[in-house]
Amino acid sequence: METSLYLIPNVLHPDSFGDTLPQHVKTVTATLRQFFVEDIRAARRFLSRMSHPLPMEQLQFFELNEHTSVNEISSFLPLLQADNSGIISDAGVPAVADPGASLIKTAHDHNIRVVPLAGPSSILMALMASGLNGQSFAFNGYLPVRQNDRIARIRTLERRSGAEGQTQIFIETPYRNMQLLEDLIACCKLETLLCVAANITATDEYISTRSIRRWKGNLPPLHKQPAVFCLQAVTSKK
What we know:
With 238 residues, this protein is an alpha/beta fold. It has 2 domains: 113 residues, Cobalt-precorrin-4 Transmethylase, domain 1, CATH 3.40.1010; 111 residues, Tetrapyrrole methylase, C-terminal domain (Methyltransferase, Cobalt-precorrin-4 Transmethylase, Domain 2). It is built from 10 helices and 10 strands. The strands form 2 sheets. A 5-stranded parallel sheet has the order 3-2-4-1-5, sandwiched between helices. Strands 6-7-10-8-9 form a 5-stranded mixed sheet. Helix 8 packs across helix 9.
């Protein structure tokens, strides 16, 4: 029997539960009994809110996060081959700035169909709303924690953006947002454009693109808020 692994998007914020998940996602998810998830309790809440037709006790959950070992990934193969499965991230789409890629690669290696379902991605939604270059862009994940290393990385990304005309996208742990934002304002060129996109899809969503010059002295409060940063430098003249 051919089986499928469905990549199930989750909402970015509880406020948007009824608005950002297509009905097709709910229809497909309702047919599944086994799920690979970042956090089991969060996944159960998500499926309950989605009105999964089966009691939670009849569903199977397997943790798939940054602590999942290679051996555990390998042990999931018989489950993938036995029945259709779903991967659920805590927010957004699986395997994009979230766990899941290793299991997806295992599925491909064994000819298991992989089906991505449409849903919200904070990275793409930030880029869409930024007004920056959407034809050439790079997602860089998290920047270094140590300030000196972080500043060096910011300057490298700014130079790359200026040389290639490429939008550079990155994220930060919410409680370090302000440190990152302050470093961006302090070390980037005044003409460089920066988009700050926070709480995407929430009722207090904040998205603004300005030059570093215009950001100075006017920073939004981002502490403990999920945020995406998009940077585009002035293209270097050749």
